[in-house]
UniProtKB/TrEMBL annotation:
Keywords: Nucleotidyltransferase, Phosphoprotein, Transferase. InterPro entries: CheY-like_superfamily, Diguanylate_Cyclase, GGDEF_dom, Nucleotide_cyclase, Rev_trsase/Diguanyl_cyclase, Sig_transdc_resp-reg_receiver. The keyword Nucleotidyltransferase applies. This is diguanylate cyclase. The modification 4-aspartylphosphate is found at residue 71. Its EC number is 2.7.7.65. CDD domains: GGDEF. One of its GO terms (molecular function) is diguanylate cyclase activity. It catalyses: 2 GTP = 3',3'-c-di-GMP + 2 diphosphate. Residues 181-317 form the GGDEF domain.
Amino acid sequence: MSDTHSLFSSELAPGSAYPERPKLLIVDDQPVNIQVLYQVFGASCEVFMATSGQQALDVCRQKRPDLVLLDVVMPDMDGVEVCRKIKSEPEISDIPVIFVTSQNSPEEETLGLEAGAVDFISKPINPAVVKARVKTHLMLKIQTDALRELASVDGLTGISNRRQFDERIESEWRACRRTGQPLAMIMIDVDHFKKYNDHYGHLEGDTCLKLVAQALKESQWRGRDIAARYGGEEFVCLMPETKLEDALKKAEAIRQRIFDLVIPHATSDTADRVTISVGVACTVPDDQDLKRLISAADEQLYKAKEGGRNRVEGVST
Ligand SMILES: Nc1nc2c(ncn2[C@@H]2O[C@H](COP(=O)(O)OP(=O)(O)OP(=O)(O)O)[C@@H](O)[C@H]2O)c(=O)[nH]1
């Protein structure tokens, strides 16, 4: 095992959620410079290469590297511009960028740091220095990822939490507004859950919520969909680029799935088991507040409750 390999596999990966081979993107318009860095990291990292700024952005979007080593002076789009672009795209903005440059004046460094870079490495590179810096920033990325994960997951059920949902609905609202595509939202409430708690106890209530969440998680979602705990015994799902008709089908499948779990509910006025009521709303986002989508889903949920519970209601606005 090479020295470089042990640097990552024995010190970095064990005990962390980090992949044994972190993904590293090396960007330089001179292939010979890429080769030099490849010699250092080829054994320990999954290395991607790009010889232009545009290529670098494409690799970031498609491969989501854990770190970018970025040349500053390149034709077409220089490194500072590439870095700015990476930092302005929410999906890739958390990827740390280290500049590898022969221009190490304080002005250049300031410009790079202001563009969002985390560090600078001077050319010609010193392999030990590059390894040490990359390792430091990969470890920081592990910690940041772990914290972000912790902050976005609901403690009881393990699915996404309200904070994560709030962030996603904001970004999907913007994305669907740009493309003119519909955005659908499903709001779910467990029926007679107070009675469930009163009869079976709060701990059993918690177990019930976990089962509902698990069933939601295991429903077949598409790439950008998200299912989250909204609070208490309420759950929400977001389905970008989805028509009302398809969201209603999904909501009905979820309602049936929970019904089929056959979680006994002796004191429910609706059935002999736990059921859910579901409100669905769908809209093409405009420049109005996204709260109108949430309110519409909430109104439909209320309608489902009023209509006898264990049912789905929906509206297109
Ligand atoms: N066990 C448990 N109970 C919770 C949790 N969060 C909220 N609840 C309970 O969920 C119940 C919700 O009750 P209500 O809002 O009255 O609604 P409901 O009894 O489900 O009645 P309907 O919605 O009208 O069918 C309350 O008793 C809350 O205490 C939780 O994390 N665990």
